[in-house]
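Reply to dn_fold:

You asked what the input looked like. This is it:
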Amino acid sequence: MNRNKYLTIYQTITREILEGKYPYQSILPSENKLVEMYDVSRETVRKALSLLQSNGYIQKLKGKGSVVIFNEANHFPVSQLISFKEIQESLNLHYETIVERFEVVSAKDFPHVQQALKLGDYEKLWKVVRCRVENGKTAIVDIDYFIQSLMPALSEEVAQQSIYEYIEDRLGLTISFSNKAITFEPFDDDDFDYFGETNPPYAAVVRSVVHLDDTRPFQYNVSKHRANEFKFVDFSRRISAHDE
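and this is what came back:
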């Protein structure tokens, strides 16, 4: 038997969770049933379930089985450099994007952005504010600042779809890497306008500076999520001292 069979089971169940076959708080088939379904040993099934639990898809509960704890609204790949359109397609999400603001502003009016993007006082920025809405409820607010001279023909129509797609496919630029920081902050007046009343009135705020492949910074992004619905899930592996 292929010793990596457990990875195939893990990948299959992960896909089924993402596609909604096993929704949030549902119970996976029992270990005995999975052994029968995949024609593998109990040890192989347990390895697959352990990996699902480690990566935040299930929680194994004594006497109950494997409970699906993955909630698509709370699992955004914060550590990856990926557009919202790509997130929707990869996680099978169905959010509406509403462009709340699309305007040209002066870099000097936003000193933290000016410094991060290394701009002079008289350089211009596109400021784009987009709400990601599901069932009439705003889940995420993205506030972006792009260097205008790099993309003078940027439009509200493009912002409604995918700015990254525009940058890569139409401008021929390569988006390479970003630096990100996550903080939790009380709502300001704009947050109340966008999110409405929320308890507690706090946002999980992801700030990032995104660079092209020639190391030029071109975007400053502030992504705000409801703090009570935000969950950062990542995978890490300890490197043994013997491997260093």
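The longest helix spans residues 5-18.
Hope that clears it up.
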